[in-house]
Amino acid sequence: METKSANGLFIYKINDVNLLDGKTEFRISLTNNGNRDTTLTVITINFKATDDKNKLLREGSCTFDNLQISMPKDKEVYETFIIEDANWKAHNDAFNISCDFTDVAVNPPVD
């Protein structure tokens, strides 16, 4: 599964999502389209996973702060983010995922 979305400074590409027992694992690549190198310090991931019949499997949101992800200008960086919830059961069949990224903070700020 590959989904791209632009959010100002970055392009986010969801390369893989795994619905595991107690957690959802996102393998994402981020591309810095700014004018200079920066460091990603905060990002919030909001998501909803449904089966092929549009039945909700799980949804959630998590803010990852205190990040220190180096984001060189015009480079793609690969990262894994994990959102945990003890009530989630593994889902190994096909599913659909919708996801957005908010509350993005970088240091130094870039245009």
Strand percentage lies at over 45%
CA-based shape = elongated
The average pLDDT is 90
How widely separated are the two ends? 30 Å
Based on CA atoms alone, the radius of gyration comes out at 15 Å
Please give the share of residues in helix: under 10%
Low-pLDDT stretches are: none
Major sheet size, sense and barrel closure: 4 strands, antiparallel
Protein structure class = mainly beta
Helical segment count: 0
Strand order of the largest sheet: 1-2-3-7
The count of DSSP E runs of length 2 or more, i.e. the number of strands, is: 8
Q: N-to-C SSE series?
A: EEEEEEEE
Blueprint (SSEs and pairs):
Blueprint: E1 3-7, E2 10-20, E3 23-32, E4 38-50, E5 56-64, E6 69-71, E7 76-84, E8 96-107
Antiparallel strand pairs: 1-2, 2-3, 3-7, 4-5, 4-6, 4-8
Structure description:
- By secondary structure, the chain is an all-beta fold.
- About 0% of the residues lie in helices and about 65% in strands.
- The chain is built from no helices and eight strands.
- Strand 1 and strand 2 (about 10-20) form a beta hairpin.
- The termini are far apart.
Primary descriptors:
111 residues; four-stranded antiparallel β-sheet; mainly beta
Q: Quick gist of this model?
A:
By secondary structure, the protein is mainly β. Helix content is 0%, strand content 65%.
